[in-house]
Amino acid sequence: MTNFHEAEHIQMLRETLLRFIEKEMPLDLVRKWDRDNHFPREVHAKLAALGLMGLTVPEEYGGGGRDVRATIMAIELLCGRSMAVGGPYIQSACYAGLNLAEVGSERQKAELLPRVVEEGMIFAYGISEPDVGADVASVRTTGRVEGDRLIVNGSKRFCSGATIASYIYTLVRTGPREDRHRNLTLVLIPSDADGITFEAQDALGLKGTGTYDVTFADVSVPLANVVGEEAGFNNAWTMLVGPGLDIEKMEVAAMALGIASAAVEEAWAYAQERVQFGKPISAFQSVRHMLAEARTKLHACRAVTYQAADALDRAEDASLETSMAKLFVCQTAQEIVLACQQVLGAYGYIKEFDMERHVRDILVMPILGGSSAIQKNNICNMLKLRK
Ligand SMILES: Cc1cc2nc3c(=O)[nH]c(=O)nc-3n(C[C@H](O)[C@H](O)[C@H](O)COP(=O)(O)OP(=O)(O)OC[C@H]3O[C@@H](n4cnc5c(N)ncnc54)[C@H](O)[C@@H]3O)c2cc1C
């Protein structure tokens, strides 16, 4: 199958990564990580040693220079095998690497980006709250300045990977609520700071990192931890809706693409092995057609994802394409996985088969990173559809 004019360095990286996956992420371990909700830190460290976290980091800080297409390909391959490795990869390369490179202060970049590249340092996103979902600007967690410290109070919800992260990239309100887009600040809160408590939430999928309720009770951090330092204070909204948001949409699309790819491969192989009525079920037209449709949809998802990634690499304004990609790929990938599950019949519904994990993981993709409804709103607004 075509990889849509992949540059030679990305092809080489793809081959290296496929060998890494075979060696370091065998399916018996992948199943165990999922079952035990376990983060394999040693595999994450080996990914860093391979230089994979540097795909988002400028050369002057030890990375290879920002390469969205390569990052997307890495997310696709890793998440196609295991969310317990793919999720934390995103939290390192993107949540930490991309964000710091984009909006960190010079000092923060110099101090933290080499740690992303070398150690695979992980950030968790502390954006959502019990009463804050899509309406991010309504955030209630507060940050109060006291001397050279910021005192944080409030709670975050669905903070994925909070306990494996070095820092929680936390959105706080640092002024009156009336000016809801202005008085927002992003702050790096060490996950072992005094006053933080974690309570695990029991999610259906995305096992490995876990997702948490996080409570901040008078958590005190230096003002130097404000993302972007002085320039970042009360300025988080522009940081959140900037180019980083476009890449975030693509991260979720790439996850969905990887999961759908794995589901298609599993269903394709299964259909040729499973015999009923004296024939492999791949001989029955209904199964053949399901598989043909799944492959075609997957091809379309890949084209849309790579096209938007290439636009970002050319530094074009790709807000529209990335919203379309997020919407189309996540919804279509879900259709693909559910169709592939049907190909496996009853075996697609039991834990002994990987399909069951793919189904659990794919269901959240249209919700994360701006839901399908929010992307539809964005697309209409960007194209100025009359209200
Ligand atoms: C497994 C998992 C991991 C997550 N990880 C993180 C994380 O690490 N950090 C983090 O901060 N958050 C995380 N989230 C939260 C996720 O980003 C939110 O679920 C998402 O922002 C949507 O918020 P909500 O679920 O509260 O939905 P709501 O905003 O309450 O929306 C509910 C429904 O209403 C629709 N809706 C809302 N507003 C509109 C509108 N204006 N127009 C049309 N429809 C609308 C939505 O599309 C949705 O269908 C995670 C969630 C899950 C399930």
- Poorly predicted regions: none
- Which class of the largest domain in CATH terms? Mainly Alpha
- What is the name of the CATH superfamily of the largest domain? Butyryl-CoA Dehydrogenase, subunit A, domain 3
Task: Give the count of helical stretches.
Answer: 12
Number of separate strands: 9
Total number of domains: 3
State which percent range the strand residues make up.
Answer: 5-15%
CATH architecture annotation name of the largest domain: Up-down Bundle
Q: Provide the CATH topology of the largest domain.
A: Butyryl-CoA Dehydrogenase, subunit A, domain 3
What overall form do the CA principal axes indicate?
globular
Physical arrangement of strands within the biggest beta sheet: 2-3-7-6
| Bound ligands | flavin-adenine dinucleotide
Query: In percent, how helical is the residue content?
Result: 40-55%
The N- to C-terminal Cα distance equals 42 Å
Radius of gyration: 21 Å
> Main beta sheet: strand number and arrangement?
4 strands, antiparallel
Oligomer: single chain
Family: Belongs to the acyl-CoA dehydrogenase family.
InterPro entries: Acyl-CoA_Oxase/DH_mid-dom (IPR006091), Acyl-CoA_Oxase/DH_mid-dom_sf (IPR046373), AcylCo_DH-like_C (IPR036250), AcylCo_DH/oxidase_C (IPR009075), AcylCoA_DH/ox_N (IPR013786), AcylCoA_DH/ox_N_sf (IPR037069), AcylCoA_DH/oxidase_NM_dom_sf (IPR009100)
Domain Acyl-CoA dehydrogenase/oxidase C-terminal: 244-379
Domain Acyl-CoA dehydrogenase/oxidase N-terminal: 8-118
What can you see in these coordinates?
There is one protein chain. By secondary structure, this protein is an alpha+beta fold. It folds into three domains: 8-121, Orthogonal Bundle (Butyryl-Coa Dehydrogenase, subunit A, domain 1), CATH 1.10.540; 125-235, Beta Barrel (Butyryl-CoA Dehydrogenase, subunit A, domain 2), CATH 2.40.110.10; 242-382, Up-down Bundle (Butyryl-CoA Dehydrogenase, subunit A, domain 3). The protein has twelve helices and nine strands. A four-stranded antiparallel sheet has the order 2-3-7-6, with no helix packed on it. Strands 1-4-5 form a three-stranded mixed sheet. Strands 8-9 form a two-stranded antiparallel sheet. β2 (142-146) and β3 (149-160) form a beta hairpin. α4 runs antiparallel to α5, α4 (68-81) packs across α8 (243-273) and α5 (83-103) runs antiparallel to α8. The mean pLDDT is 96. The structure holds flavin-adenine dinucleotide (FAD). Flavin-adenine dinucleotide is lined by residues 124-125, 127-128, 133-134, 158-160, 203, 206, 211, 364, 367-368, 371, 373-374, 377. GO terms for molecular function: acyl-CoA dehydrogenase activity; flavin adenine dinucleotide binding. Pfam families: Acyl-CoA_dh_1, Acyl-CoA_dh_M, Acyl-CoA_dh_N. Its cofactor is FAD.
